[in-house]
Each structure stands twice: as C-alpha cells, then as structure tokens.
Amino acid sequence: VLEFDMQHSKEVVDLKRFDVSPTLTGFIDGQSVPENASAEIVKCIAPTDETELTSLYEADLDEVDGAVNAARRAFESGPWPRMSIDERNRILRQISDKIVEHAEELAYLESINVGLPIRNVKVAHIPRAARNFAFFTEVARQA
C-alpha cells in the first residue's frame, strides 16, 4: 500500500487492486516472451517511497532482434499499411476513448510509476494522452 500526500490530504493506493505480475517479460509478435533464467532482472521502484512495484527481465540481443523483425514484418505486411485513413482514425479514436474510459486506473498507475501526485496525473497527463491520439486522427485527415 502506498500513501500519497496531495497538498496535505492523504490518498492510499492499494497496489493489489492492479493485476501486476511480480516479474514481467517482454511481449513480441503477439506473444509473451518466456522467462530467461540468465537475463538480468531490473526492478521497477516507486520513486515516492522506493517500494518495489514489479521487476522486468531485461531483453537480450535475440529478443531485441526478434522485436525489430516482428515490427518490420508488421509494418510491411500487417493490416495497418493497407488500411484507409478512416479505418486508422477509427482505431486511434478507440485508443483515445479507452484512455478516457480507464483514466482513473491509468492515473493511479502512472502516479505510482513516476511519483507525481495523482491529481496532477488525472487532470493533465491522462487527458493529454487521450488528446494526443485524437489529435493525430485530425492530422491524418489533413494529410
């Protein structure tokens, strides 16, 4: 449980409310990367009180190459390059809508991750993320 002091009012965040694995692996080409026993484990630490939030297996060169190759394949032969602007805009708008829909949870997670007061993240960072996706739907229409 983490406590945040937002201008003298305490807000308690129960990390157990979020489904975060104790140690995370990568996600490449639509699949979770298997745990690599020889990989270095990097701890994710909350900057407010140095609580360990989770840890990550550091990617090795093969995993990085696999991620780059998967991204290249997706770019060259995946559905995105063949979609119309309207289809792409629909997807970007859905992402924006999902950010708004899950704003509360995202705000808590981001505030824990970067150490900012939840209030700041709720009123600035999360709405800005949603607006960025909405903005690019407009830019794509003008291109």
Automatic annotation (TrEMBL):
Tell me, what's a Pfam family for it? Aldedh
Q: Which Gene3D superfamilies match?
A: Aldehyde Dehydrogenase, Chain A, domain 1
- Chain ranges of the Aldehyde dehydrogenase domain: 38-142
MF terms per GO, please? oxidoreductase activity
**Which PANTHER family has this protein been placed in?**
ALDEHYDE DEHYDROGENASE-RELATED
Q: What is the name of this protein?
A: Aldehyde dehydrogenase domain-containing protein
